[in-house]
Every structure is written in C-alpha cells, then in structure tokens.
Amino acid sequence: MSTTERYWAERPYAGQKALIIGVANERSLAWAIARELHLGGAELAFTFLGEALERRVRPLAESVGATIVEPCNVSDDTQIEALFSKLTEKWGTLDHVIHSVAFANREDLDGRFVDTSREGFRVAMDVSAYSLVALARHAEPMMLNGGSILTLSYYGAEKVVPNYNVMGVAKAALEACVRYLAWDMGPKKIRVNAISAGAVKTLAAAGIRDFRTMLAEAAESTPLKENIHQDDVGRLGGFLCGPGGRHITGSTMYVDSGAHIMG
Ligand code: NAD
Asked: What pLDDT shows up at residue 152?
C-alpha cells in the first residue's frame, strides 16, 4: 500500500463534522477542501447563497452524502443563527468550519482604490472579513472537542495587486481576524488559519478585471513556473484540518507556486 493509500485508509477525519461555506460550483475552492475532507471520512454540511446557487450546490452535496444543505447569506445574522440552530439540532457538535467567501462590488475591483465608496468598503469588509468572526462565534459552542476554522486569503492582502483594490484591504483584515480568533479560541483547542492561494479560475475570480492576464503572468513569474490547481488548496485544507495541523494556528499558509517570495 502506498503512503497516500495508507493515509486515506486511516480515514483521518472519520467521525468528524465539517461545515462548508462558499461552494458555488465544482470549481469553488471550498469544494476542493470538501472533497478532501469527504475522502478522509468527514461528514459534511453545506450552505448556499440564493436559489440559483442552491441548484448547483445540492447535487454536489448529495454526491458526497451530505444531508444538511442550508441557505446562508453571511451578512445576515438571522440566517447565520438559523444555520447554527439546524446544525445544533442535527449534529450537536462540530469539528471544522471552512469559510471560503468573499465579495466586493464589481466597480470596486477596477480602476483606482481611492475611488472606493463608503458603502463599497463596508460591503467588502462585512462579507469577506467580519463574516469569519460571526461564524466563529456561533461555531465555538459546538466545537466541544477542539477543531479547526479555515479561511481563504490572497497575496493582495500584503502587497498591491492592481485591480484587487478593496478586496486586498478586506483580506488584510481577514488575516488579522485569523490571528485574534486564534488567540481567543486556542484555550479550547480550536485552531484558526488562512490559506493564501495562488490564482485559480473560479466564479469569484471572474469578477476581477484582467484576471486572465493575472493568471498568465502568475504562471510565468512564480518559481515553479505554473499556476496552482484547485486540488492543491484542497490538500492543504485537509492537512490543516487533520493531525498534521494539530499545532498550527493563527497562520496564513501559502499555496501559490512560491509567488509570495518574489520581489
Ligand atoms: P467561488 O465564486 O467559487 O466562491 C466564492 C463564494 O462566496 C461563492 O460560493 C459565493 O456564493 C460566496 N459568497 C459571496 N457572498 C456571500 C454572502 N454574502 N454570503 C454567503 N456566501 C457568499 O470562488 P473561489 O475562488 O472559490 O472563492 C473562495 C475564496 O477563495 C474567496 O474568499 C476568495 O477570495 C478566495 N481566493 C480565491 C482565489 C482565486 O484565484 N480563485 C485566490 C485566493 C483566494
């Protein structure tokens, strides 16, 4: 048996329950992490944003045996409360939360950052950063055996990436939230981390102007000379939720073909 086969045979997440927030379709980074957790034996619950995405998410959820598929707009406290009431009723406990959600108005992902409106700034921060805090607060009482909370970030949090604009500011806040949440929740053995992923063609990425050029340039300029694949994010997500991540918290870990080391 190969090392990989032996790893999956041990089913590292057997008996564990994971809430996956942010699947829009089969290209979503959240779906890559969900598949990895499913392979390792975890039971999954999914959320969707709106009826149009429900039609995409339900069949995917069913394909991995998930029976909990609930609506959740992360900027709506009532929907977050309803989601956690359902999880408490059906599961009682929770081991992992995958937060793979971001949003900014299209006009704020183009042109000059200085033109970001007050409302555009608020929306990007609320959906892309504050939502992690709200979800963590609701998840904490259910995470009785510790566990892990994972979010998705991007290098635009640290350096200027043209057109990423307000989303870069929101990702910087998100990474800071990860550190403060890790400190708050550490005594309960709840770990909080971010994955800073290289560019992958997804629905959310399509909203960034010149994304195709960004992808092509990224492939050329990284040490590994190739873009990452959705599955790379899945594997790192699985690692951070599993035994390998037992003493990793408050971190932002890169899976970007080395893009972040370049000057
Ligand atoms: P995606 O479009 O598949 O996923 C984004 C998800 O956010 C969707 O499921 C959407 O429904 C959800 N969402 C948006 N607003 C929401 C709200 N108010 N309430 C609930 N859900 C909401 O795209 P993705 O690329 O998989 O994005 C997932 C995460 O990965 C995002 O945080 C994104 O910034 C991050 N990320 C993506 C890339 C990339 O190149 N694709 C790189 C680094 C980080």
From this structure: 98
Q: For residue 155, which atom of ligand 1 is closest to its CA?
A: 43
Q: Which of 19, 25, 28, 212 to mutate to test the pocket of ligand 1 (most atoms within 8 A of CB)?
A: 28
pTM of the predicted model, to two decimals? Answer: 0.96
Tell me, what's the pLDDT at 210?
Answer: 82
Domain ranges of the chain: 3-199+230-255
Fold observed for domain 3-199+230-255 = Rossmann fold (3.40.50)
227 Ramachandran zone, left/alpha/beta (phi>0; psi -120 to 50): beta
Q: Which of 80, 98, 104 is nearest to 37 (CA)?
A: 98
Q: How far apart are CA 207 and CA 110, in angstroms?
A: 9
Q: How confident is the model at residue 218 (pLDDT cuts 50, 70, 90)?
A: confident
Residue 14 half-sphere exposure, CB side, CA atoms within 13 Å?
Answer: 6
CA-nearest residue, atom 20 of ligand 1: 73
- Distance (Å, whole) CA 127 – CA 104: 8
